[in-house]
Amino acid sequence: MVHADTTSSTVWLESNTDADHHNALFDRITRLSLAQRNSVRLIDGILKEM
Q1: Tens digits of residue pLDDT in 3-13
Q2: How far apart, in whole angstroms, are the C-alpha atoms of residue 22 and residue 34?
Q3: Cβ contacts of residue 14 below 8 Å, gap of 6+?
Q4: Sign of the CA dihedral 18, 22, 27, 32?
Q5: Tell me, what's the pLDDT at 18?
Q6: Spatial contact of 44 and 34, defined as CB atoms under 8 Å apart
Q7: Closest Cα partner for 13 from 3, 23, 21?
Q8: What residues form DSSP beta bridges with 5?
Q9: Which segments of the chain have a pLDDT < 70?
Q10: Which of the four, 1, 7, 22, 39, has the lowest number of CB atoms within 10 Å?
């Protein structure tokens, strides 16, 4: 079961297929995201260019 808040409601994904899909996407995003330190550096670099 997956609980997801949106800007206007709460969504519950109860089927195994939906939960598995959500978990696979979350895992991929986690693997592709920058580490906190690198995220801060990226944002700081963007701000300096503005």
Answers
A1: 989 999 999 99
A2: 20
A3: 1
A4: positive
A5: 94
A6: no
A7: 3
A8: 10
A9: none
A10: 7
